[in-house]
């Protein structure tokens, strides 16, 4: 592949995104990936794409790989459901490690744009911001009690019962997961009863989305309990619980926003790139990209991967470790990123339909994936996911040199070590 074997579009300015916007066409769901959780270019260019999708194609919301309660606080800010606050102050709600994923200046710029955009539009036309992830068990339970204590005593009592079941574990998911592995008791029934009670209620508030928010917190709590029980088994089942919850949340958001609604999803490539075209599928694992294609039809879902050749990144040396700015070495020879580097040093947009006649790409090749835990010294022995690129994505955006994301400085809520073997 020394010569240019397929067409690509050099990416130097926002206008160059035209080829991608045209490729997206009338798709209902667009998923924008990232090869790490700590690279500035992935955030800034996803913001540029998202702005155009919202302005030009009427997309209704951005859903991210973040917790629901914290992301909903951002949604309230950008839609004016709460008094005006400094954006950096609101982003301080992201206190679960790794805080830099959403508490960073690149996200602050996105939030500022969303707030300004929404200030110019009526209530039903405002763009939203939501979290798809499943980790916020206790935070979601706390949110439910907070709202139901003023509206429905029976549902609030069911939530308090669920919380009391978890109290012996000191809000520590690891303790709860390990306990359920050795003792044939858990809090599943209490959480299910709470979910059923909450789903039956009508909730009234100055916030027009408060009923959806409360019921979503109940769903998060139920699925988080299931996730933590599955995690201790050390299999791919916890991954499937997590991505299944993400897909269920995306479904609920699209239904809530109406039959013509459109969604933008920001997650790691490992979630948005169709799992069937990686070794994940060999192990019975699926992800939100695969599930969305299966549910909405491949023509209605566009999956856009991101990656780079070399640069810097924010990550931790272990789970819960202090964040560091780390060097990302040149991509491993023979990998997807090295192939793109060898073609040219341009930043570029590649459409998968232009890769169909490239024999080297019709098989699995290494494709770099950096998680929140990273060690550049041993990258050559890992961090590469065998991938059939033209099938995993509909398009790919490549950067020759990347820069680390710019975090808002804060301390994390808890380290929760050893609980998350999947750090994407």
From TrEMBL:
Taxonomy, superkingdom: Bacteria
GO biological process entries: response to antibiotic
SUPFAM superfamilies assigned to the protein according to its UniProt record, in alphabetical order: EreA/ChaN-like
Stored Gene3D superfamilies: Biosynthetic Protein domain (1.20.1440.30), EreA-like (biosynthetic domain) (3.40.1660.10), EreA-like, domain 2 (3.30.1870.10)
InterPro entries hit by this protein: Emycin_Estase, Hydrolase/PRTase-associated, UCP036794_erythomycin
Source organism of the structure: Pontibacter akesuensis
Pfam families: Erythro_esteras
Designated name of the protein: Erythromycin esterase homolog
CDD domains per UniProt: Ere-like
């Amino acid at each position: 592949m020394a010569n240019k074997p397929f067409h690509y579009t050099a990416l130097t300015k926002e206008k160059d995104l035209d080829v991608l916007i045209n490729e997206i066409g009338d798709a209902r769901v667009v998923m924008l990936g990232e090869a790490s959780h700590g690279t500035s270019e992935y955030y800034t260019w996803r913001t540029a794409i998202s702005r155009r999708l919202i302005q030009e194609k009427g997309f209704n919301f951005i859903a991210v790989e973040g917790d629901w309660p914290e992301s909903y606080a951002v949604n309230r800010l950008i839609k004016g459901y709460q008094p005006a606050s400094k954006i950096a102050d609101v982003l301080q709600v992201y206190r679960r490690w790794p805080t830099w994923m959403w508490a960073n200046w690149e996200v602050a710029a996105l939030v500022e744009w969303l707030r300004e955009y929404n200030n110019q539009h009526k209530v039903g036309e405002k763009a939203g911001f939501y979290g798809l992830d499943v980790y916020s068990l206790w935070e979601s339970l706390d949110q439910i009690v907070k709202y139901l204590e003023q509206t429905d005593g029976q549902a609030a009592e069911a939530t308090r019962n669920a919380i009391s079941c978890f109290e012996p574990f000191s809000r520590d998911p690891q303790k709860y997961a390990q306990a359920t592995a050795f003792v044939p008791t858990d809090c599943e029934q209490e959480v299910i009863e709470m979910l059923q009670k909450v789903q039956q209620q009508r909730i009234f508030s100055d916030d027009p989305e408060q009923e959806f928010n409360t019921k979503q917190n109940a769903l998060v709590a139920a699925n988080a309990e299931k996730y933590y029980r599955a995690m201790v088994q050390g299999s791919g089942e916890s991954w499937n619980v997590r991505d299944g919850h993400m897909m269920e949340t995306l479904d609920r958001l699209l239904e809530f926003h109406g039959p013509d609604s459109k969604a933008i999803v920001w997650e790691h490539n490992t979630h948005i790139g169709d799992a069937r075209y990686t070794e994940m599928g060999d192990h019975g694992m699926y992800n939100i990209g695969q599930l969305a294609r299966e549910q909405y039809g491949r023509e209605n879902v566009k999956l856009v991967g991101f990656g780079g050749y070399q640069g810097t990144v924010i990550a931790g040396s272990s789970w819960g470790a202090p964040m560091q700015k780390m060097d990302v070495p040149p991509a491993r020879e023979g990998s997807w990123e090295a192939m793109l580097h060898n073609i040219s040093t341009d930043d570029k947009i590649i459409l998968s339909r232009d890769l169909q006649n490239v024999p080297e790409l019709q098989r699995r090749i290494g494709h770099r994936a950096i998680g929140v835990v990273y060690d550049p010294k041993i990258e050559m022995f890992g961090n590469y996911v065998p991938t059939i690129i033209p099938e995993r994505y509909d398009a790919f955006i490549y950067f020759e040199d990347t820069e680390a994301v710019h975090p808002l400085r804060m301390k994390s809520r808890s380290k929760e070590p050893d609980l998350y073997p999947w750090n994407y």
